[in-house]
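Work package 3, deliverable 3.1, input record:
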Amino acid sequence: MSAMKLWEYVVRRLIALIPVIIGVTVIAFVLWKAIPIDPAVAYLGAKGAQKSPENIAALHAAWHLDDPLPAQYLWYMGNLVRGDLGPSFVNKDPVNIARFLPATLELTFYAILFALPVGIYLGILSAMKRNSWVDQLARVLAIVGVAVPIYWLGIMLKIFFHENLAVLGLNVLPLDGRLDPTLTPPPTVTGWYTIDSILALNLTTFVSAVLHLILPAFTLGFAQLALILRMTRSGMLEVLGQDYVRTARAKGVPEREVVFKHAFRNAMNATLTVSGLTVGTALAGDVYVESIYGIFGIGQYFLQSALADGFFDILGYLFIVTIFYVTANLVIDVLYAAVDPQVRLGGS
Amino acid sequence: MVLRSGDESAVAWSRIWERFLQDHASRISELKYTLFLFRKNRLAMLGLGLILGLVAIAFLAPELALQKPVFVNIGGSLQQRWTPSSDVLVGTSWTHPFGTDNFGVDWYSKVLYGTGVSLQVGVLVVVPASLIGTLLGLLAGFKGGLIEEIVMRITDIFLSIPSLILAIAITAVLGRSLTHVMYALIITWWPWYTRLVRGQVLSVKERQFVESAKSVGASPTRLMLRHILPNSISPVIVQASMDFGYVILTAAGLGFLGLGSPPGTAEWGVMIAEGINYLFVAPWMSAFPGLAIVIAVLGFNLLGDGLRDILDPRLRR
């Protein structure tokens, strides 16, 4: 397809996102208004400040709590557009999600980096060697993988890799945090310890950061791997039975080329579709993984806000995560359109 | 056969029954074929077996358990209390198959009691969510136009927030309790059904039998409920059976995070979380409730997978 058309498609999709994102803020706002608790009182409680009538009245005025609902919404949206997410209930003011974002993004990135290629590879292998022991094993993995709760898997891995089981020689991986407690974090450039430590040319820190990522990334990626494997396998099976694959084989195209160039390109739709969902489940899974492995990212931040009735924190988090999620899906849809000539870029 | 007086009604009923069998012969043979396919599908049977096992455990929990909870009335609602004992943090043994917790409560009994809780959550979330979602999807696909536009845009908005995250936010806002977890899950789950059913309706609507029904004067309601709905429903059944598992998993997850049942209750997620503090001294505390979740999700997943193969008209013949 022509680059021009693809470009048009991207712009059209971006415009279509605007009402969706506004809709999410409306949902978040309705949620906020549905609570019987007075946010001003909750805020003073969370901050340990005195809940005197004057303090409450001051917050009511500052947050426009006594205005009519549409005016309140517009006030919140006005702040949002200016990048102000409001005062934080659980941290120092104001709500600052950017500070916690890198840890989460790093974890999520490595989880998907592990799950996607391994899932695709196993899916292809399993479809190629249908009904062999590899295939049987892969199918069991696909079925069990989605049934294992991520929070339970994380805990079980911690038990297995603890020094109590040193006999198994598995006590080599750290179980908590992002770095060895004796090390200082590298100077912040991206906030990703694996990148920042390289930029600081500090090998020890880099190794420690990588070791600390292995278990959390595996935990987070496991279910995604199973899902990707499952979709790739079924996509490949459907495609491998088709005529053009047989033709390609008959005319002597090397098997490797048949699989990757002819079959997988067409089977990739299913894989791509599920990858979009994967981003959503991974962002949600971060909430569990971060709390189990003691990583302070946005997932943990969100959980603490949720447990402390942190209204502005919850709204801000919902907003940011949604933007990430819809953007990831947009990127995937564009890839989809770029890769698959059959996708029509028409209106509906 | 000698008929005593009063058996005439029995005869009449048997006639009606025969008539019914005749009238619906094709449907009955279809159903028999479905059952035949189901019995042949070993994984689906395994899934069904696991589910029936769990249902049996849920009902028999009071008989099978070694220890029973006491229910106390706190502020008008019944709450579970498990009597402590001196057998604190004892490992698995014949007296305590799944060990005990830091209060000496028998963990096996609590896992058994948790089965009923999880299955109930599954039913109480999936049934309303699939009903709401199906009806809205049916309406949107059938009516089209403005109604479709509104319903589908709302669906899109809900689907653009990762479901667990929306569920956490809703529970946090409503206040922590299992009931609120269920409300939150219903609110996050219905849009999937709407999207699914609408897509299905759009394709079924174009099929010939709908056209013929329309041409002989079937009313829109009849068209929608008697012709389109039954032919759009099989993916809903598949999805619902899988969702039982995922809902159980997610609800337990919210319990794990501390948003659901209060600590001390026999709920799998809460129990896993309680095990965290004793991870390395009493690993069984987290292990067994988690295993129970795996079995439940696996059961519903296998059943759903099998149903998909069985109900898919392309794979059927």
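Chain A touches chain B through 50 residues (CB under 8 Å).
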